[in-house]
Hints:
The chain is α/β, with parallel strands linked by helices.
Amino acid sequence: MNTQKITSLIRDVKDFPKEGIIFKDITPILKKPAVCREIVSEFFKRFNRTTIDVIVGIESRGFLFGMLLAQKFKIPFVPVRKSGKLPYKTVAYKYDLEYGSAEIEIHADAIVKGQHILIHDDLLATGGTASATAELVKMLGGKIAGFSFLVELGFLNGRQKLENYTDNVECLIKY
Ligand code: AMP
């Protein structure tokens, strides 16, 4: 995998969505279909020996490569969304943020008990969102097979939080 090429397509946006945050914008990657294919192939290679039945993508940028990955693995894709967005019966999980709290949901029938789940998002920061997603998966009886991210902000130690669920955490680009 050409890590440098991918890194060059991740744009730093200062002070978005609020002051002090450097937002890692992956939309320039989406304009390069060959790079997108390379990313999907790399994830596929890294999880080739893992049993995965379903890919769960986290709103909203986790849908982008999550869905492509599910197609590559020829398995179902399931969206996790912020509360109030999913139309059918849902299961919800509330978690703490730096300031305040957030709630995410999954459709109650999205996972069959015992299925092996790969959780995907664009970026791992503190790991709060991915951990909350793992809790939702567990509430439906799913087993956490792994986590995948394009980008890891290593200095926020999110990986440590995810190790409560599995050691199988793959990130393509680390900062
Ligand atoms: P966290 O729960 O702290 O791991 O935050 C992860 C979620 O917030 C992911 O859905 C990311 O897309 C988003 N996020 C957090 N920090 C950044 C950042 N610096 N750049 C882009 N997205 C971010």
